[in-house]
Specification:
Radius of gyration: 19 Å
CATH architecture of one domain: 3-Layer(aba) Sandwich
Distance between the termini: 44 Å
Number of strands: 12
Order of helices and strands: EHEHEHHEHEEHEEEHEEHEHH
Strand content: 5-15%
Shape: globular
CATH class of one domain: Alpha Beta
Structural class: alpha/beta
Number of helices: 10
CATH topology of one domain: Rossmann fold
Largest sheet: 6 strands, parallel
CATH superfamily of one domain: NAD(P)-binding Rossmann-like Domain
Length: 315
């Protein structure tokens, strides 16, 4: 699909990933519309109808979600399930009703069963219950695949489903309650370094592993899917590499110059034991592999965090 001149609606287009996706879509020549929740509430079907009536999109990329780290998921399981299911239902139905050419739904690695064999393969998505601390969110995102495949079969809706792993990069959420692990660890270690603390305490045991994907690499994959993927099969997006939280903390400490001791609060949950994505389908269907190494991505993320915080202080 040639994206030049196409009307593309990106839900969640002002969010962390959304901003990168919108930039890449515009660079490809698309006309991009992104609206904030204050303008259109995707949980309200009437608002979704108004939004689609206004934009008349050829393509929809559904990124909008209520999401957070382990702390946010534990505090809001009902809300996260309700909001994410309802937004997905309303957007998919509107895409059908308005005859969009392509709908790209973005799921989450939280949808995978807790004890999925690493690396995660898409065909294992349904083999068990997600990790308990984020199961409500993960199940809501998993059911988007059922929805996409059902609407494809019954109505001919060209809906595709992508599963990104843990994202990081400039512009991420560094809040200690709502942010994901990597950004929260950066903030805690930077704070400890600047205060000359002799130690820093991080959540969990440090033993779980994660697959971290630089946010702009993810945006590139999504735009490739918009342009060239029309299949019903879910497609993983990740780095294909696995690192423990403990090793990640050491890497961040070396980048910011922290020489103190890292303590692990084992009273806090670890989350899923392992995460690493198999990228075979991404290579086959999207002709995509990530370009950014973890070390280079971390440096850019840390530099942006320090710069943005300094600017906030000056303001």
């Amino acid at each position: 699909m040639n994206l030049k001149g196409k009307e593309v609606l990106v839900t969640g287009g002002h969010g962390f990933l959304g901003r990168y996706v919108c930039d890449r879509l515009r660079a490809a020549g698309a006309k991009v519309s992104a609206y904030r929740r204050a303008q259109y509430n995707l949980e309200d079907p009437a608002d979704v109808q108004r939004l689609f009536s206004r934009v008349r999109p050829h393509i929809v990329v559904h990124l909008a979600a209520e999401v957070g780290g382990i702390a946010a998921n534990k505090a809001n399981p009902g809300r996260f399930f309700y909001a994410n299911m309802l937004m997905g239902l309303n957007v998919v139905e509107a895409a059908r009703a308005f005859g969009v050419e392509k709908l790209v739904l973005v799921g989450s690695t939280c949808a995978y069963p807790r004890l999925t064999i690493s690396p995660f393969r898409e065909e294992n998505l349904w083999l068990g219950y997600p990790e308990e601390t984020n199961a409500a969110y993960g199940l809501a995102k998993r059911e988007l695949l059922t929805l996409a495949q059902g609407y494809r079969e019954q109505y001919g809706l060209n809906a595709v489903y992508l599963i990104p792993t843990n994202l990081y990069g400039p512009g991420g959420d560094f809040d200690l309650q709502s942010g994901h692990s990597l950004h929260s660890i950066i903030r805690r270690i930077v704070d400890a370094t600047e205060s000359a603390a002799s130690s820093v305490t991080l959540w969990g045991s440090g033993k779980p592993t994660r697959d971290y994907l630089y946010v702009d690499d993810c945006a590139e994959a999504i735009v490739k899917a918009v342009a060239s993927y029309d299949g019903s099969l879910a497609v993983n997006l990740g780095s294909g590499d696995e690192i423990s939280i403990e090793a990640l903390a050491r890497l961040i400490a070396s980048e910011v110059g922290f020489t103190g001791t890292v303590h692990w609060d084992k009273s806090k949950p670890d989350g899923q034991p392992r995460r690493c994505m198999d990228l075979s389908r991404a290579v086959r269907f999207l002709d995509w592999v990530p370009k950014t190494t973890l070390r280079n991505g971390l440096r850019r993320t840390i530099e942006a965090y320090l710069r943005d915080r300094a600017m906030a202080v000056k303001a």
